[in-house]
Amino acid sequence: MADFIPYDDRDGWIWLDGKFVPWRDAKIHVLTHGLHYGACVFEGERAYEGEVFRGTEHSKRLHKSAELVGYKIPVPVADLDRIKLELMQKNGFPDCYVRAFAWRGSEMMGVSAQQATIRTCVAVWQWGNYFADKMKGIRVTMSDWKRPSPETIPCHAKAAGLYMICTMSKHKAEAEGYADALMLDYRGYVAELTGANVFLVRDGAIHTPTPDCFLNGITRQTVIQLAKARGYEVIERHITPDELPSFSECFITGTAAEVTPVAEMAGHTYKPGEISANLMGDYEKLVRRKLVLDKVA
Ligand SMILES: Cc1ncc(COP(=O)(O)O)c(C=O)c1O
């Protein structure tokens, strides 16, 4: 659970539109297009021991998300990478969460905002484990909401509007005592959690949904590489919910969640086991540069 120091009342620095500003002064006007119309794009990244894990990939994904929702971020990828590091140093956070984001500003307030400037910001803060006591495994319920079709919304953009149903699903799950919710996609296939990708294990093979209508997480791609390097078979395919009882292990991946085993999902129980533990360990070593991917045992 995150701490409760309000996010607008902290010491430190935030980078906003070209300048490092004192944390409490990083403000925008209430009549901001990005707040009203959902096309803010953002990244969630983690830095370990002074280095942002896959930082450039995240900066590139931020640019791609903006392109998918129809605008161009005025800060090049290389500058974003440099700003993240400078900001971590300025705040004194070698280990932290990194949030880079962009949105349409306040010049126009209507569905059309062709002349609105694109604003860009980077903030960093200290954020521990997303889920407590990971190896115990989290309990996940089934969401009432489904991931939308690629014909409905640019579903590969990490854009704020797509998170409305994630927050609704997560709030309902938490109110019922669960840690998170599994979302099916518009066709009824297993998709992802509200902020993480999902993996399932059967007979030693790892199955994971094909990311054709949801985020192909950077952690997901990393964990697939780690699994293959260990010699595990990884099968990307459409998975139906009625298959869920046939798996023995389940784990989720995401920048915030890292690799977290699942003890229960949609009413089925799983045993956080060897494959989950191995990949959790490998990921922890990789992000701290204690393991090189092509040298995994
Ligand atoms: C909806 C959703 N799916 C998957 C992920 C995992 O993506 P990544 O591993 O790039 O953090 C995230 C986190 O960003 C997410 O919010």
Q: Give the percentage of residues in beta strands.
A: 25-35%
Q: Determine the fraction of residues in helical runs and give it as a percent range.
A: 10-25%
The assigned structural class equals alpha+beta
CATH A-level architecture of the largest domain: Alpha-Beta Barrel
Measured between the Cα atoms of the first and last residue, the distance is 34 Å
Give the strand tally.
15
- How many independent structural domains? 2
C-alpha geometry: globular
Count of separate DSSP helical elements = 6
**Arithmetic mean pLDDT:** 96
Uncertain spans, ≥5 residues at pLDDT below 50? Answer: none
Structure explained in plain terms:
This protein has 297 residues and is an alpha+beta fold. Strands 7, 8, 9, 10, 11, 12, 13, 14 and 15 form a 9-stranded mixed β-sheet that branches. The model has no long low-confidence stretch (mean pLDDT 96). 25% of the residues lie in helices and 29% in strands. The protein starts with 12 loop residues before the first strand and ends in a 10-residue tail after the last helix. It has 2 domains: 13-125, Aminotransferase class 4, branched-chain amino acid transferase, N-terminal domain (D-amino Acid Aminotransferase, Chain A, domain 1, 2-Layer Sandwich); 134-295, D-amino Acid Aminotransferase, subunit A, domain 2 (D-amino Acid Aminotransferase, Chain A, domain 2). The longest helix is centred in the first third of the chain and has 15 residues, at 55-69. It has helices spanning 33-37, 55-69, 77-91, 164-175, 218-229, 274-287; strands at 13-16, 19-22, 41-48, 51-52, 96-104, 118-125, 138-147, 180-185, 190-193, 197-202, 205-209, 234-237, 249-254, 258-265, 268-269. Helix 2 crosses helix 3. Strand 3 and strand 4 form a beta hairpin. The protein has 6 helices and 15 strands. Pyridoxal-5'-phosphate (PLP) binds at residues 44, 166, 192, 195-197, 215, 217-220, 253-255.
